[in-house]
Write a structure and sequence with these properties.
193 residues; alpha+beta; NADH Oxidase
């Protein structure tokens, strides 16, 4: 298969995976996806990221509780129990990656920076994971409980957690993603419906 065809197939099969098998992600595989993240482009090549990798079941359970509280707040639902939270996606993922980005004005990084440079790194990580057979999903819902989660994980004030990325071997088969044709998403030279 030609390289461009391989890449396009990878894009077509990038899916949000929220259920995982109870099978560990090896250090070698994890290193590969983190290496892919590290090679992402960033504004002025500042590389303003740190990746907090969570594997400890207790830490993931505590994070899952905060995440489920954030989900309940967003949806206007009652707060979950600890048991419900421990059955959630965050607690059950073999690995949770917390991509963090430096906060403009609180670091020594020079130049204009909005924090958006973290997202190409997240995409690289998730595409590398998919290429290796792993599933992942990016969520930002945790930001509703940002202060509690930063305290729990010890994230310093010079960094912001941009997302949570649960990562593991998919719990079921996933086919290609469903998207509208490119013509439905693109306008040329001026906005059109």
């Amino acid at each position: 298969m030609e390289p461009i065809v391989q890449v396009m197939e990878l894009f077509r099969h990038q899916r949000a995976v929220r259920t995982f098998r109870d099978e560990p992600v090896t250090d070698e595989v994890l290193h590969t996806v983190l290496e892919a993240a590290r090679h992402a482009p960033s504004g002025s090549n500042t590389q303003p990221w740190r990746f907090l990798v969570l594997r400890d079941a207790g830490v993931k359970a505590d994070l899952s509780f905060e995440y489920e509280l954030a989900q309940a707040t967003r949806a206007g639902r009652p707060s979950p129990s600890r048991e419900q939270a421990e059955a959630g996606m965050i607690a059950r993922a073999p690995v949770v990656v917390v991509p963090c980005v430096t906060v403009p004005g609180r670091t020594g990084h020079a130049g204009f920076q909005t924090g958006a440079s973290i997202y190409p790194a997240c995409q690289n990580l998730m595409l590398a994971a998919r290429a290796l057979g792993l599933g992942s999903v990016l969520t930002t819902t945790h930001r509703i409980r940002r202060a509690e989660i930063h305290a729990l994980l010890g994230i310093p004030v010079t960094y912001e957690s941009a997302a949570l990325i649960p990562l593991g071997w998919p719990g079921r088969a996933y086919g290609p993603n469903r998207r509208e044709p490119v013509e439905m998403a693109v306008c040329f030279d001026h906005w059109s419906e």
